[in-house]
Design goal:
The protein contains 21 helices and 16 strands. Among the domains are: 4-69, no CATH class; 338-413. It is elongated and about 135 Å long. Strand 15 and strand 16 (527-532) form a beta hairpin. It has helices at 4-14, 55-66, 87-98, 101-105, 111-125, 130-134, 142-145, 154-167, 169-180, 249-259, 276-282, 296-304, 337-362, 370-384, 405-413, 431-439, 442-452, 466-489, 491-495, 507-515, 537-545, and strands at residues 17-22, 29-38, 41-50, 79-85, 186-195, 220-228, 233-240, 265-269, 288-293, 319-323, 326-335, 390-395, 398-403, 417-422, 518-524, 527-532. It is of the alpha+beta class.
């Protein structure tokens, strides 16, 4: 098939030809004509019609017949009137729709659903506040692709859709669970917190509590994230900031059975979540098995009862011990030499600082009262948390102290040791599989890193109302849902990447490469039209892996 320019050249060689555009029909038609004078009359000869093209292209062809088109090699051949980001927004929107996330949000394609899709994809591509995203309408095709033309009103297109989204959260999570969880499936659950800045006087969930980010003096909320065995998020819940980790477990398991319809569950939680108190409650739940890790206090209790000994912990082999008092409880004993070395070094550093501080008190020439010296010693032991290793007393205004060397030596024997506790029957999982399953919780920790750092930036949280805070968190988790599937499809790209300084690909770099695919408004010979830049080889590879068509 020849180009339009080819036919234009042929027709021009026959007789001067022009294109007459007829717009009175349902669709514009171009009529190829040549005109000539015969006596006193102007006559026309029709050479054919051009149909099936939009008006803008017909005008370009008309300009070509007039000779108005600037030569191809001229820098004035066309003008780019504006340029907006297109590639990343288009690709992730298509991915979300392939995952049927739009259908999960609501069965009908209502405007608020498209607004939520824009916020979900916008969280992956741009992060930032809802107001900042609404102001991106001049810089990105995202809102236009979601059906919003022109300026974006943050109240209409962000806040009100967030309210609708929160109303649908339980139904949406049920849909995701039906898709990614099966009865008897492993369910990974972990807790984190996110801190707030500013005043939240009217909030009932933004409270002071144990801050996992080390941000003392900041109020917070607690987040419970539910994932399948591969780390795909299926649900999130926002708890008050003073909520204890273990107190959320029973509620979450009840939710799994009630809302997600799971009869057989293997629940995997971080250390300390399955406490003695809630273990008694969970024991009554039919079809439930748990996998968790013991806290240091729980390990010490087993040592004191002589259920375990330090010699059982081995770097090469996982030993399994059954507690005579709890015959259905399996303890898988493991040792990590790298963690052991770190724990030994940390303790020794704190012991050295404790010795230095206590020796300063001993070396003073002036005597002190019992009250004053006791307060000073207590402050030092509280700062370095080494009190259990120190024996001290005050005699005649002087401090006397020494380390409990036997206690330190005993503690060192358990450096790098940890115990994975499970109620899963041995015929269903051996000890190696139990430990490996517990280690899978790292994928939830990775999810938290993505949510809380520059990848998705769950904070700062600009919303003051509790429901808006909950909806914001849910939006961020849905954004991670899209990002998680994006990473799964891009595994071949990441696996073939270089190492060290030759490493190129991260999620952020992939998005940046897609963002350079732009939608441009072009003007040629007084005719304006939109054009999307051609993907280069790298960009096309990414689009192919994502199974996205331009």
């Amino acid at each position: 098939m020849h180009s339009i320019a080819y036919y234009v050249a042929i027709l021009k060689s026959i007789r001067p030809v022009h294109l007459e555009i007829q717009t009175h029909r349902a669709h514009p038609v171009g009529v190829l004509r040549s005109s000539f004078r015969q006596g006193d009359q102007i006559k026309h000869t029709n050479h054919g019609r051009i149909t099936g093209l939009p008006l803008e292209q017909l005008k370009l062809i008309q300009a070509a017949f007039r000779g108005d088109v600037v030569p191809k090699d001229s820098p004035q051949a066309f003008q780019t009137l504006n340029s907006t980001e297109y590639g990343a927004s288009h690709a992730l929107l298509q991915l979300a729709k392939q995952l049927e996330l739009d259908r999960a949000l609501y069965s009908r394609n209502e405007p608020w659903v498209q607004d939520c899709l824009a916020m979900i994809v916008g969280r992956v591509v741009y992060a930032g506040s809802k107001l900042a995203l609404s102001n991106q309408w001049k810089n990105t095709a995202l809102w236009e692709l979601c059906g919003v033309e022109g300026p974006v009103d943050v109240e209409e297109h962000c806040y009100l859709p967030m309210d609708r989204l929160l109303e649908r959260q339980r139904a949406i999570q049920r849909t995701l669970a039906d898709k990614h969880l099966e009865s008897g499936h492993l369910v990974l659950y972990d807790i984190t917190s996110t801190y707030f800045e500013g005043a939240y006087v009217e909030s009932e969930i933004v409270l002071f509590g144990y801050n996992r980010d080390g941000k003392k003096g900041h109020e917070q909320v607690v987040l419970g994230l539910l994932c399948n065995a591969e780390g795909c998020p299926v649900g999130v819940e926002v708890f008050a900031g003073n909520t204890q980790d273990a107190s959320t477990v029973v509620t979450k398991i009840e939710e799994l059975r009630r809302d997600y319809g799971l009869k057989q569950i293997t629940f995997v939680g971080d250390r300390g979540m399955v406490t003695q108190a809630n273990a008694e409650q969970l024991k009554q739940v039919e079809g439930l098995h748990t996998i968790s890790a013991l806290t240091h206090r729980q390990i010490v209790e087993l040592v004191e009862r002589k259920v375990i000994q330090a010699e059982l912990f081995d770097e090469q082999r996982i030993a399994e011990v059954i507690d005579p008092e709890k015959p259905k409880q399996r303890y898988c004993l493991c040792r990590n030499p790298q963690s052991g070395a770190r724990e030994t070094a940390t303790r020794q550093r704190l012991l050295d600082r404790t010795r230095e501080a206590l020796d300063k008190i001993v070396g003073r020439k002036k005597k002190g009262s019992i009250e004053k010296l006791s307060a000073q010693v207590g402050k030092i032991l509280a700062r370095y948390k080494m009190g259990k290793f120190v024996e001290w007393q005050i005699e005649a205004g002087r401090l006397k102290w020494h380390f409990k060397e036997a206690h330190i030596k005993q503690e060192k024997l358990f450096d790098g040791c940890y115990i994975v506790s499970a109620t899963v029957p041995k015929e269903q999982m051996n000890q190696d599989e139990v430990v490996e399953t517990y280690k899978n919780l790292s994928v939830v920790e990775q999810a938290f890193r993505n949510l809380k750092t520059v990848s998705l930036e769950i904070r700062p949280v600009y919303h003051k109302k509790d429901d808006r805070i909950r909806s914001h968190v849910f939006l961020c988790v849905l954004a991670f849902y899209v990002q998680w599937h994006m990473q799964q499809r891009l595994k071949p790209l990441f696996e073939t990447d270089g190492e060290g300084k030759n490493r190129q690909w991260t999620v952020e770099n992939v998005i940046a490469r897609l963002m350079s695919i732009r939608k441009q408004r072009v003007k040629v010979a007084e005719v304006e039209f939109d054009q999307v830049t051609q993907a280069d080889q790298e960009q096309q590879k990414i689009l192919d892996l994502l199974k996205v068509k331009r």
